UniProtKB/TrEMBL annotation:
Gene: recF
One Gene Ontology MF term: ATP binding
Compartment(s) where it occurs, according to its Swiss-Prot or TrEMBL record: Cytoplasm
Entry superkingdom: Bacteria
PROSITE patterns tied to this protein: RECF_1, RECF_2
UniProt function note: The RecF protein is involved in DNA metabolism; it is required for DNA replication and normal SOS inducibility. RecF binds preferentially to single-stranded, linear DNA. It also seems to bind ATP.
Protein name, UniProt field: DNA replication and repair protein RecF
Binding sites annotated in the UniProt record for ATP: G30, S31, N32, G33, Q34, G35, K36, T37
Protein family per UniProt: Belongs to the RecF family.
Organism: Subtercola boreus
Amino acid sequence: MQVRHLSLSDFRNYSVAELELGAGPNLFVGSNGQGKTNLVEALGYLSTLGSHRVSSDQALIRMGQQAAIIRARLEHAGREVLVEVQINRSEANRAQVNRSVTKIREIPRFFSSVLFAPEDLALVRGDPSGRRRFIDQLLFARSPRLAGVATDYDRVLRQRNTLLKSARNSGVKANQLSTLEIWDDRLVVLGSELIAERDALVFQLRPYIEKAYLAVAGSDHSPKISSRLSILSLSSTSSSDDELDDQPGASAERLGSPFRRADVEIQFRTALADLRRQELDRGITLCGPHRDDLLFELNGLPAKGYASHGESWSFALAVKLASADLLRTDSALGDPVVILDDVFAELDKARRARLAAAVADYEQVLITAAVFGDVPEQLTAHTVHISAGTIVSEPADA
């Protein structure tokens, strides 16, 4: 998979941008705040329908405008496809493929990318919500149908929480909530599919993470990833409405074989029954995929809280490189486009060289940097300079 041409209209600080891209590495260089990250953010949006920097689409539309347009000409196996997304300020977003209107949720089927940015350090050091978002984005990239399952689950979860809050406020007894059992069933069916699919994906990622960590760090610190499932915990003492405790023992870790869906459903129903009193007291759903987490370990210890800054960076990089490696093995689109947004400035010289070697054989790699010298020489052949929302130069062989 390659991006041959990127066109932007009223996206971030670009009124208009036209950019030809080549195979292999493409480097965007510019001082901070000039717009280089905006270019890769636009491409990342096409594969995830979201930004890696902000949660709202509104920030992507240039000040004073009502819509932003991202248009990309993609190539795979000698065939080209034109995809377009219009991000609207006051109405639903729109999408086209080869000039034909399509549902916007279909766009990621045509473009696969893996983006790593400084914000991804939060995968190791941040809250569970970021790790859930990571595993879901990878899950949906491999099986787009599951994005619809997740949307349905979120809808049922909101309705169930509304019922729980209403029951708490009115003092209704647990045995009088026959309606709750209907929502329980839908929650279990949808949630169990997500939990089982996530857990299976975690197992598939493990050897790729081990390989990627060694490639980036240059040493083996026994990196490990496992699932922390809220349905395996018989109580929830967390004060947050959607997070597990960070304390050891707050939830069970999945280390054996992947959890079969039928077993997940049984455990999910058991957990809901065990937590019913707490849920009515708090007015929220206390178990399910919306409260699960991933555990990252190095040398047998949780990376969060124990890993050094360099080790945390290496683990975060390894997780993203492992994702790209997994996608390239089973995607009909071939290699995902690898995007490294302002990453090299955070790495020492040795890690820079190892990262450059790790991505060298991908069909296309997009890199942003504020300082040209931070990027290893083998990644600088096609360099684009960015200044104040203007593309100053393009790759020499474009």
